[in-house]
Design goal:
The protein is of the alpha/beta class and about 230 residues long. It folds into two domains: about 1-95 and about 185-225, ATPase, nucleotide binding domain (Nucleotidyltransferase, domain 5, 2-Layer Sandwich); about 105-180, 2-Layer Sandwich (Nucleotidyltransferase, domain 5). It contains eight helices and ten strands. The chain has helices at about 35-50, 70-85, 95-100, 140-145, 155-160, 165-170, 185-200, 215-225, and strands spanning about 1-5, 15-20, 20-30, 60-65, 90-95, 110-115, 120-125, 130-140, 150-155, 175. β4, α2 and β5 (about 90-95) form a beta-alpha-beta unit. The longest helix has 18 residues, at about 70-85.
């Protein structure tokens, strides 16, 4: 089975093609262009250089969030269109789970965090390959109060944004993921999708939607304005 994955939930645009036998191709781009400018040329180039045609793809995978509201919509629309047109399965994958996937071979607590601004983060917790705290939006100080006293691997752009706060609270218990593992990878999204497909799990391309976890800044400002 060959899976094509797309991730546009963060600053990076990622795509990969993978089968059960291994990774076939993987692209990651971080530049000043928007995801809408990057994603289709990146997919086209990746498929051409790996001698894969779209009709060889058996299933599609996409990160559903949390993350950038606009980015999530771009990736979701792209992959849902592929799934609907090609009549192939689609699998939604948590961005936080994809971040944690690169660290599953440790017995330490894995803490993926995505910066949601104003000292808020999107977060989940994983240990020994299992999710022990589902995706949520939480204040960074509240999160650290929950997990302090444990040896924790921090991964994601939130780990960079709030590193000084994390170090102040966690001290030597804080372990920061290296740069090469600190972002979502298309390969990890593919790998998680393959696991779900092997269990007979997939999503409906007509009802699969982004997981935002909270309303946008514009929606909050609109609600506040209407209160007045």
């Amino acid at each position: 089975m060959i899976v094509l994955s797309v991730d546009t939930s963060t600053q990076n645009a990622c795509a990969a093609v993978m089968s059960h036998e291994g990774l076939i191709a993987e692209y990651t781009i971080s530049n000043k262009k928007t995801h809408s400018q990057n994603i289709m040329p990146m997919i086209d180039d990746m498929l051409k250089k790996s001698d894969i045609t779209m009709d060889m793809i058996d299933a599609f995978a996409v990160t559903v969030g949390p993350g950038s509201f606009t980015g999530l919509r771009i990736g979701m629309a792209t992959v849902k269109t592929f799934s609907q047109v090609m009549k192939k399965p689609i699998v939604g994958v948590s961005t936080l789970e994809a971040l944690a996937e690169g660290h599953i071979l440790t017995d330490k607590l894995i803490c993926p965090i995505i910066d949601a601004r104003r000292e808020d983060v999107y977060n989940a917790l994983y240990k020994n390959g299992q999710c022990i705290q589902k995706d949520r939006a939480i204040n960074i100080h509240t999160l650290l109060d929950e997990i302090k006293g444990q040896s924790v691997i921090f991964v994601g752009d939130g780990a960079l944004a709030y590193r000084s706060i994390i170090e102040e609270t966690m001290g030597e218990d804080a372990i920061f993921s290296p740069v090469c593992l600190n972002t979502t990878r298309g390969a990890n999204v593919c790998q998680l999708a393959l696991k779900k497909l092997d269990m007979g799990l997939c999503d409906d391309p007509y009802t699969l939607n982004p997981v935002y976890l909270r309303v946008s800044q514009a929606e909050r400002e609109y609600a506040e304005k209407n209160k007045q």
